[in-house]
Hints:
Number of strands: 7
Distance between the termini: 72 Å
Number of helices: 8
Strand order of the largest sheet: 1-2-3-4-5-7-6
Largest sheet: 7 strands, mixed
Shape: globular
Amino acid sequence: MRLAGSDDLDALASIGAAAFAGKYGPAFGADAAAGARALAAAGLSHPDCRVLVAEVGGRVAGSVQLLLGPGPGEGALSRAVEESLGPLRTLRASLVLSLLRPPEVPADRAYLDALAVAPWARRRGVARALLTECGALARAAGLRGVLLLVTADNTAALALYERAGLHAVERRRWLLARMVFGSPGAVVMEWPMEPAPRAPARGPARTEPEDRPRAPAPHPGRRR
C-alpha cells in the first residue's frame, strides 16, 4: 500500500476504465481510458486528495481516491479532462457525470471515490485493504467519518462497505441516470469513526530539589 505518483497514471487509467465502464463509457465513449487518466491526474495534483494504490506481486492491483478536504471541484476536473479530450467531449462528459452528483460533505468528513480493483486481482482482499487504509487516514486527520456514493445495483461493493461498518444515509432514485447508466439509483453511505486520540500535552519540566542547600552567594565587593 502506498501513495500513487505520476508514474502510476497508466495503471490508474487502465484500472479505472475497466472498473467504471458503466460510468466512463457513457461519459467518455471510446476515450474512457484517457478520461480516467485525466481524472486521476487531477486527483494527484490536488493537495487535499490522497490517491492510494495497492500492489500484488509488484503490479498495481487497485486504487482509490480519498478527499480529506474540499475537492478539486467540477471546474478543475473539467479543465483536466479538456486538456486530453478537447472542449466538446469534455462538455458531454461533464453533463453525463453530473448525473452522479456526489453528496455534500461536511468539513469533519472525508469523501472516498473511485475505489477500483484490476480484474486479475479481484477476490484477493485488495478492495478491503484500500478501504481500511482510507479509514486509517481519515482517523489520523482528525475526521469523524467517511462518505461515499455507490450505485444501488453494485451488490459486491455494497456488501463490502456494510461489512466494514458503513451504513446508508441517503437513497437516490433517478430516471434519466437509469437510462444512461442502467442503474436504478444510488446509495450515499457513511462510515462513522472517532478521530485518533492526540498525545497529551507535556507540562513544564519539574525541578527536583537538591539534596544539600547551597551556600549563600557572596555579597558584591566582599571577599571570602
